[in-house]
Recover the amino acids of this structure.
């Protein structure tokens, strides 16, 4: 009995993927657990395992094919005997389970939006503060108002705003920006750049496309506020060397970043107003701090997650980060290892960056941007002295987090790092 | 150091409102006025004419008392007493503005103001001149009636609105040149008061800025009241004589007829008061004689602002007031919302009244809209019939695509008090469904507003 082998959904947001490489060929006998193919999703390259036994009779999608829709038949397997249990086709690795985070994960607003928004997208307009006429025009034109900045009373979206969005209005409501926003949300518009400069066209990887889309959407839809503090590192560095001395025989070497991950998680637990996700009509208040750690990989950037970092010892965080980062660089992370998280940390200190503002990774509501720890002139007890100081900037989703709460967060974080025994308590 | 944060030149409904708003926002404000606080509007325009028209209306009702089962005998009109009442109303409001200036601690400088620089002006009165400086100056000098080039008003036989408001005698046979709001209001007033009135309009219909249906209906109604209306006609010559005016009028058919009248009112438009206030030296940008301003009433000269009749149309008191608030709030550092000219209503207080907001049906079609039109007659409204005012209609023009109310046009009793309903709806960007979902009280004339909207979508109930 032939079994259809279908393109698996390897992550909750995956709608299509690239069939990177077949690991079997026609005529091969496979059994449950055998690797069939490598599939590149928007985030990573994943191995695709067989659950049924049989012989691969036909490969329908050649390797290297991209844009293969989830559910499309990619190969046929002939069962060994017809009396075999009812075919289950092939199960994908379990998609990231929403149970990984205590609060349900908000379905990311950054799924691929089709060129024509779905009915449900327009229903979203009902909850948007817009005049009846603005809503009507949006429905007629198939526009999503959720990200439009209103210029009417109390930020109400009015006709002129919608017309500017659809490129009709002549009123100067930064129409260029709104127009750009429209293009980004409605369709992946292919832009042709005419240039005489010698160049080659580099095809975007799925990861690059996802990064481009998500960062654009974050900056357009999430009002960021940035709060920077200078944090004295001397005590933390001293603690680190002491801890590393005692961890040496276990082969563990803590990085400053490992300690900052712990500090971030502890701060989120102490200032829960910043451990949230903004979800339109409501907000998710997380009861656990899962930290997404930005890891640079050859094809872009990925954020493996240290789950429940506040309750993990530094040694555990350190080994987990090292292990996840290594697999991230090989493109071998499983979706649940990089999807989710309640806040992110991005550290560019090793590159000597003094200070920067990071882009929030929705639906998370904050990200911490860590600059280089460097010796700076520092006033200690009213005298000029030298201290190791780093600048840390928190980016907060201002829809969910007030400035005062963000400021409290930065204060608590600074205190934790400057009096770092709390990290090991 | 300037004497003031803001000086407003002109104290009409634009200027005095700007001064009040600025003072409320904590600015040190002065206002310069050459004649009467309150300007034309409440001294020589909107308000005193409404007082006159009220007298005419009551006179009209008394003459038709029988229609209501009443008897009124020996009815007569005393034009001097009617004018006296009108002046009394104007005086009361003028004093009201004086009080408002005092209450808001606005310094009033009486005299002729003239700009010396963008932040400095002189005020002259009785040969004495003082100089004032301010961080900002708002020009609100208004407009005056346009004269016929060949027959300037003399105040005796040839009048502007201003003379027509304080007649020394009741005209027997009146010629009104121009059928805009001012011309048609005076024509209606004197017609009700018993004069024999002829209206000459150059364009092919009266109240030409209104919807064509309104023009046609009004012409019929006024003609029925005994008015002689000549459209597509022009006055070729006009001459005051000892006993009246003689005019030769070229009719629609091209024939010129000579006629004698006792008086003539010239109401062919307005001229902005932009002379002798020092604009030329400052290089203030103009557009067809009016000052050019941005959405917040700034001229091209920093610190110099302009509102009301010296700027772009419509030349209406409420537009001037609204601009006054926008300018004052902007000067005080605020960010007021700009005004949409399509949401400025217009009212004409003839009998029957005319009121409108937004685009006419023709203008909407011209602009490329696919329109849905509703039209509900007063005849279908219980309250109108009970009032004995069953003439008129309410017309609405919607964009078929979006349900936007593009325009509303009314003629009939009290429509000037109704138009605000549609204006609110337009300003809040309501669509047809919102108007349909609104509960209008019964029995009122406003129910016709509901019916007109329903009618545009084929859902009319009472016709």
């Amino acid at each position: 009995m032939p079994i259809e082998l279908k393109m698996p959904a390897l992550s909750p947001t995956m709608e299509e993927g690239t069939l990177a490489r077949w690991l079997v060929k026609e005529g091969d006998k496979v059994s449950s657990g055998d690797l069939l193919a490598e599939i590149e999703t928007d985030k990573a390259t994943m191995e695709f395992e067989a659950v049924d036994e049989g012989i691969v009779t036909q490969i329908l999608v050649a390797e290297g094919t991209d844009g293969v829709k989830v559910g499309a038949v990619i190969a046929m397997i002939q069962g060994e005997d017809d009396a075999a249990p009812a075919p289950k086709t092939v199960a994908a690795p379990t998609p990231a389970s929403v149970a990984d985070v205590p609060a349900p994960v908000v379905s990311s607003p950054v799924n691929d939006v089709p060129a024509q928004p779905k009915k449900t997208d327009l229903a979203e307009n009902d909850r948007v503060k817009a005049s009846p006429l603005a809503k009507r025009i949006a429905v007629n034109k198939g526009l999503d108002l959720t990200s439009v900045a209103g210029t009417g009373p109390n930020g109400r979206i009015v006709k002129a705003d919608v017309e500017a969005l659809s490129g009709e209005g002549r009123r100067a409501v930064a129409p260029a920006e709104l127009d750009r926003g429209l293009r980004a949300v409605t369709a992946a518009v292919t832009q042709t750049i005419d240039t005489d400069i010698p160049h080659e066209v580099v095809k975007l990887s799925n990861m690059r496309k996802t990064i481009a889309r998500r960062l654009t959407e974050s900056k357009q839809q999430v009002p960021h506020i940035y709060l920077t503090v200078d944090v004295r590192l001397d005590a933390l560095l001293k603690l680190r060397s002491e801890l590393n001395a005692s961890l040496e025989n276990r082969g563990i070497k803590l990085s400053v970043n490992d300690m900052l991950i712990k500090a971030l998680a502890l701060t989120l637990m102490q200032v829960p107003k910043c451990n949230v996700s903004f979800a339109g009509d409501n907000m998710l208040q997380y009861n656990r701090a899962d930290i997404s750690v930005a890891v640079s990989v050859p094809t872009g950037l990925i954020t493996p997650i240290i789950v429940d970092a506040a309750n993990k010892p530094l040694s555990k965080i350190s080994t987990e980060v090292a292990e996840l980062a290594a697999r991230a660089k090989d493109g071998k992370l499983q979706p649940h290892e990089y999807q989710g998280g309640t806040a992110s940390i991005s550290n560019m200190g090793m590159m000597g960056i003094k200070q920067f503002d990071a882009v929030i990774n929705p639906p998370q509501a904050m990200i911490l941007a860590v600059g280089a720890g460097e010796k700076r002139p520092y006033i200690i007890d009213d005298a000029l002295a030298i201290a190791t100081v780093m600048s840390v900037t928190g980016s907060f989703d201002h829809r969910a987090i007030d400035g005062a709460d963000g400021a409290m967060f930065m204060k608590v974080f600074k205190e934790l790092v400057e009096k770092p025994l709390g990290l090991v308590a | 150091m300037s004497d003031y944060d803001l000086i407003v030149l002109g104290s009409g409904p634009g200027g005095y409102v700007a001064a009040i708003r600025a003072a409320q926002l904590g600015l040190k404000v002065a206002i310069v006025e050459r004649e009467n606080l309150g300007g034309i509007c409440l001294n020589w325009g909107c308000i005193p004419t409404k007082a006159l028209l009220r007298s005419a209306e009551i006179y009209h009702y008394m003459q038709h008392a029988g229609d209501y089962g009443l008897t009124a005998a020996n009815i007569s009109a005393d034009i001097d007493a009617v004018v006296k009442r009108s002046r009394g109303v104007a005086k009361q409001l003028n004093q009201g503005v004086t009080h408002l200036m005092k209450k808001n601690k606005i310094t009033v400088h009486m005299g002729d103001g003239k700009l010396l620089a963008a932040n400095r002006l002189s005020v002259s009165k009785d040969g004495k001149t003082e100089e004032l400086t301010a961080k900002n100056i708002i020009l609100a000098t208004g407009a005056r009636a346009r004269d016929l080039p060949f027959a300037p008003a003399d105040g005796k036989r040839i009048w502007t609105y201003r003379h027509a408001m304080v007649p020394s005698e009741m005209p027997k046979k009146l010629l009104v040149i121009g059928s805009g709001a001012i011309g048609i209001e005076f024509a209606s007033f004197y017609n009700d008061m018993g004069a024999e009135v002829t209206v000459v309009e150059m364009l092919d219909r009266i109240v030409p800025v209104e919807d064509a249906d309104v023009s046609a209906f009004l012409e019929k109604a006024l003609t029925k009241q005994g008015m002689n209306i000549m459209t597509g006609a022009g006055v070729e010559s006009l001459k005051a004589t000892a006993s009246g005016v003689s005019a030769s009028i070229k009719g629609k058919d091209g024939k010129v007829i000579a006629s004698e009248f006792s008086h003539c009112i010239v109401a062919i438009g307005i001229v902005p008061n932009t002379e002798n206030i020092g604009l030329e030296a400052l290089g203030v940008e103009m557009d067809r004689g009016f000052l050019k301003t941005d959405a917040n009433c700034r001229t091209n000269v920093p610190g110099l602002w302009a509102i009301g009749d010296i700027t772009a149309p419509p030349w209406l008191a409420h537009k001037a007031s609204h601009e006054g608030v926008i300018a004052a709030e902007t000067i005080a550092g605020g960010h007021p919302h700009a005004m949409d000219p399509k949401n400025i209503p217009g009212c004409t207080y003839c009998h029957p009244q005319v009121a409108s907001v937004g685009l006419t049906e023709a203008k909407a079609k011209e602009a490329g809209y696919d329109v849905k039109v509703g039209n509900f007659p007063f005849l279908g409204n219980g309250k109108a019939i009970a009032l004995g005012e069953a003439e008129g209609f309410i017309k609405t023009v919607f964009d078929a695509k979006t349900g936007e109310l593009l325009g509303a046009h009314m003629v009939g009793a009290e429509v000037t008090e109704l138009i605000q309903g549609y204006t609110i709806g337009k300003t809040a960007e309501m669509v047809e469904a919102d108007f349909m979902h609104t509960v209008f009280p019964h029995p009122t004339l406003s129910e016709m507003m509901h019916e007109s909207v329903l009618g545009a979508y084929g859902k009319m109930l009472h016709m």
Remarks:
- Chain B has a mean pLDDT of 95.
